[in-house]
Design brief:
Helix 1 crosses helix 6 and helix 1 crosses helix 7. Helices cover 31% and strands 22% of the residues. The mean pLDDT is 91. It contains eight helices and eleven strands. The protein is an alpha/beta fold. It has one domain: 3-Layer(aba) Sandwich (UDP-N-acetylmuramoyl-L-alanine:D-glutamate ligase). It starts with a strand and ends in a 13-residue tail after the last helix. The longest helix is centred in the C-terminal third of the chain and has 16 residues, at 169-184.
Length: 247
Amino acid sequence: MVCITGSNGKTTTTSLIYHIFKSAGLNVGLAGNIGNSLALQVATEQHDYYVIELSSFQLDNMYNFRANIAVLMNITPDHLDRYDHCMQKYVDAKFRITQNQTPEDAFIFWNDDPIIKRELDKHGLRAHLYPFAAVKEDGAIAYVEDGEVEINEPIAFNMEQEELALHGTHNLYNSLAAGISANLAGIRKEYIRKALSDFKGVEHRLEKVATVRGVSFINDSKATNVNSCWYALQSMTGKTVLILGGK
């Protein structure tokens, strides 16, 4: 079970991990918040691996479930109306992805998220830790150095950052988390490189719709909180016009 959560990036990361596993020829199911029932697949299909997107709502009702590989992308304020407008309750819900893990399991997380770093010692983590970061820094086992993606554990892996299909800092994090997950699953390096370079992305998430008279139109309508919108804008390289709404 490879389980992914986070305030932002979980659907893209889930889809990317599934793409890598599928491209490597593994018998893998895709389930959870992404729209496919895990229970139905377990009852009617026989997969060797499951890649599961988990929202905080789903994690709230997780008691005996165990993630062999747990991925926590980030934690920023979201859905606080469900948690009595208490950020700590939301944080605790996200960290439920690590409960029931053993020393044989893996916990992958963003090393520079201040909330995650603050909470690490509070949750009795037993799994092996695999932190990732944008650049080489203390503690991180995956990062970019001199334009090259480096994953140092459990098996050394590298590829040129410019070869990644997904662009922008936030998508670098998604690619690093997916690469570590595939590495832990024992997928061969050449399959990981190819899948990270030919992934087509996810609808409504920095989705390139069309280019008209030199103007590129990008659909990022799934950016429903401040942080996800900020990351999308940060990834733009030219003059940008933002159209947004909501309340």
